[in-house]
Amino acid sequence: MADLNSFSFTGRLTSDASFRTLASGKGILTANVAVNTGYGDYKKTLFIKVQQWGDSGKNVVQYLKKGNLVAGTGEMSRSEWDSSDDIKHVDFVVDVRVIQMLGSKKDNEQPSEQYKISDHPEDIPF
Fold first, then answer.
1. CA–CA gap between residue 125 and residue 11 (Å, rounded)
2. How far, in Å, CA of 42 to CA of 125, rounded?
3. What does the alpha-carbon distance between residue 24 and residue 30 come to, in Å, rounded to a whole number?
4. What is the pTM of this model?
């Protein structure tokens, strides 16, 4: 039986996503996502590199801005590299098949009209 490598996540973009076309003609969308895990004293933040191969990223890159909440599904891999000062780095990279915007940073700062509490008790619908 083959192993299954499927990774699903939700998190916030730490910077604007970018799209570039490589010399081979292939396009690639790249972004970095902060994913929170745990709670209280056990809360941690994982920083994950996200990439999507092909030209489909060209259509969504303009919407993937810093602070936006996104969800994605893809295959996770691990990348190791040494910096010029001989420090070993490890990155987790997700080759996403699907990436979806769930909300903007602005949406998180103000409550939506649907849940805004009124200053006038008689306006409450129940």
1. 34
2. 40
3. 17
4. 0.71
